[in-house]
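B., you asked whether I could sanity-check this one before it goes into the benchmark set. Here's the sequence:
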Amino acid sequence: MPKGYWIGHVDVINPDDYPAYMKAAQPAYEKYGAKFLVRGGKHDAVEGKARSRHVVVEFESYEQAVACYRSPEYQAAAEIRRANSNGDILIVEGAD
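And here's what the prediction gave me:
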């Protein structure tokens, strides 16, 4: 079964309060087996526009990735993220 991934591109607009999102999201990540492959770090926008922060999170399946995002635990944390950042999040199915 292919894995599932969250791909996030984020501009943090309130760095003082953004860590509250990361802390609030931790229970959902643990519950759904999230594995962070990329979390910030250097990047080079070789084509198109880029945001200041990029994240790739791996899950055991696409369904698990969707369930985590839609979970009450994550949605409560997402409210904090939305208040302190602008971004795009995609959920994609990995290759076999």
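One thing to flag: The CA atoms of residues 46 and 52 lie 14 Å apart. Otherwise nothing jumped out at me.
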